[in-house]
Request: fold
Amino acid sequence: MIWELLRALRPQQWIKNLFVFAPLIFSQNVLNRALVLRAGLAFLAFCLISSAVYLLNDLRDIEEDRQHPLKVQRPLASGRLKRSAAVAALAIIAPAGFLVALLVNRSFVFIALGYFALQIAYTLWLKHVVILDVFVVAAGFLLRVVAGGFAIHVYLSSWLLICTTLLALFLAMGKRRHEIVLMEGRAASHRPILKEYNTYLLDQMISVVTASTLLAYCLYTISEETVAKFGTRNLIFTVPFVLYGIFRYLYLIHQKAEGGTPESLIIRDKPLLVAIALWIGVAAAVLNFR
Reply:
């Protein structure tokens, strides 16, 4: 049962919580031990809180998940984890997450509470509102970045917030498309909101967000604010890796019918992983060897 409970916490999804480290990295504080520790606590708090949300979501969506070819294997939907055990774990994990948040600072606690409240609203209502549902998913990523900034008390660049929002929308829409393609005519039986979407509409929305994401990142690398902050104009050399990464992801969505689990796809697809690693390496070199 312990193994099934661990699976229900979805540790593979914790990769999303790495977004809390973005303010630490882009404020060039990765060598500040005190701030790294505080960001680490923020990451731990979000792992616990997001896992509590996943448990709550799975408890509510047991019947819907049993209609899904992949989600039917989840511990609760498959019956391998009892409802009572999941409820007990939820009652422990959620408070634990907020206790860890208190170790960061009060401002961070308020952001974490806002994230938790938004996710509950999504589970109960907002995921049934067309278009707004994907915006709420994107807001979850944005709140992680904002929380990371509040955790270490650094200024959050408007470019960072814009790029995070657009990238999150790109991933969320790709996930919706994957659900429709995977479920075909049965999509609405699993998630009723999917009857409001079709692949053509999502492809149009993805195209808009893709172009906006690339344009925003390119403008970010050459903006006067960025140049003044980092003292270099060479961040433009990271653009090819961002272009390749997004094009590769689009290829996986359209040609391989992927995109349902972005967090695992990033790890499983070697070309995409290499592109991300090269982006990190080039960005680090540009910022540290001027």
